[in-house]
Amino acid sequence: MLSVLHSGTVLGIEAVPVIVEVDITYGLPGFGLVGLPDSAVKESRERVFSALKNSGFSIPSRRITINLAPADLRKEGTAFDLPMALGILAASEQIDAEDWDDVLVLGELALDGGLRSVRGLLSMAMMAREQGWKRVLLPAANVHEAVLVPGIQLLPVNTLQEALKAMRTGVSTFVIPQDSNTAPMIEELDFSEIKGQSQAKRALEVAAAGGHNFIMVGSPGCGKTLMARRLPSILPPLSDEEGLETTRIYSVAGLLKPGHGLMRQRPFRSPHHSISDQALVGGGKMPRPGEVSLAHLGVLFLDELPEFRKTTLETLRQPLEDGCVTISRTAHTVTYPSRCMLGAAMNPCPCGYLQDLLGRCVCKEESIQRYRNRISGPLLDRIDLHLEVASLGVEEMISERLEESSADIRSRVMVAREIQRERFKNSTGVHCNAHMSSGDLRRYCTPPPLAKALLRTAVESLGLSARAYDRILKVGRTIADLEGSESINERHLAEAIHYRSLDRRFAGAST
User: Fold this and answer.
1) Quick one: pLDDT band at residue 274, thresholds 50, 70, 90?
2) Residue 229 to residue 453: CA distance in whole angstroms
3) Of 199, 235, 249, 300, which sits with the fewest C-beta atoms within 10 Å of its C-beta?
């Protein structure tokens, strides 16, 4: 007997359909699994057989052959457990298989017949709708992400027995929670907790308003990391479209927390400096999204930037420029979005005290230059704002003055973002000023004559590249948006040029 069920697998953040064919014939008992399965799929035999036995079913004493089609596409993951088990029961005539043509079946089986969650279910539910399948049989643990896809009937179940009943009756006894479509907001750190540092806070407000990359340079203990970790508190929440895009990435990576649906909070990722190239930008034998993709539409913060391997940092250049990561393998190519804000922090020298007022720096000029040369010119070019963060004085440390809250800063950021949303409503892939193309720069960032003269002087004195010139215009446009100004003037550009301090201080850095 032959049974056929529909399932799926994930390539990048997109899902592709997979047909699970189960054939049971007379002959010596055996089990064959074909269709380029990976190790996790091959191990499904033990999970499926144990789940069937512990659910009260028998294993046919015949030759069982399972084919995962298309046969030239490598299959990975554990989502094929449930369709394999149902296929064996149908092919051995232990159950009736009727009206299964419009059902997508997904789920990992526990040895006792229970169902566990699978990665990438949100993408596979979207694929089911595109393919015209009306129902999705899935683990109840994944229901929070599946409910984000309207137009399909969900059959969430907890066990193999419940799955059989749902397939037979067309309904599920599982009650979907009413609040399952949105992930809860996590209590954020607040800028009111940071004393002083008004200039750095202003620069981070500009970065948040325009989605700009930034780097902070300052002595240990001056508050660089504290401020960076509070940046999400002044960023606007994700829109429905942005939240769905980010949630898909986390679903594919298996990082969507249980019970969490649509993500509303912008991600903040801060990997350790020992991270590998693949972990940062994605990759592997079966590609996975890296930290730059997990930070999509949020912040990727690299603390102690010079401590990262230089080759690892250089892998960021193309993702930052293109807004996506493309990973090619022999059989296929996958693409992950990576439109994030890059934030970084570093000391001014190896000991960290070059800018210290007490003169505690013991570094020689040669070691300082080697330290700075770990950051290449092309990477520095892709960072819009360079912030020099000074150490706090005694009076600032002991001051009881109330600082501006994140809510107040975020209100200004959201007004500026709304201006940009309206400006780029007809532009594909442009969310904020940092994403502007060359055509957008000509259309929205034409400076007046006095401002052009200021830019000319800056280019000549700092030796700015064409990319750095464009980024000054983008930052100037954001500063104008924060003021509600329709045009960019010399004051806006002067502040933007002020944020290019490392172009002068790092003039000796390698390119």
Assistant:
1) very high
2) 37
3) 199
Output phi, psi for 207, to 5 deg: -60, -45
What residues have CB less than 8 Å from 261, skipping those under 6 apart?
Answer: 144, 145, 147, 148, 180, 181, 182, 183, 247
Which residues have a Cβ under 8 Å from the Cβ of 239 and sit 6 or more positions away? none
For each of the domains in the chain, give its residue range(s) and CATH number, in order of start: 2-169 (3.30.230.10), 197-257+272-505 (3.40.50.300)
Residues in the chain: 511
Q: If residue 262 lies in a helix (H) or strand (E), which one and from where to where?
A: none
Rounded to a whole number of angstroms, the CA Rg of the chain reads 27
Task: Find the distance separating the first CA and the last CA of the chain, reported in whole Å.
Answer: 66
Tens digit of each residue's pLDDT (9 = 90 or more) over 323-370? 899 988 777 788 999 999 999 999 988 988 887 767 788 889 899 888
Tell whether pTM > 0.85: yes
Name the residue type at position 83: P
For residue 352, give the H/E element and its range: none
Give CA 326 to chain center in angstroms.
Answer: 14
* Edge-first strand listing for the sheet containing 135-139: 30-34, 63-69, 14-25, 2-11, 103-105, 135-139, 153-157
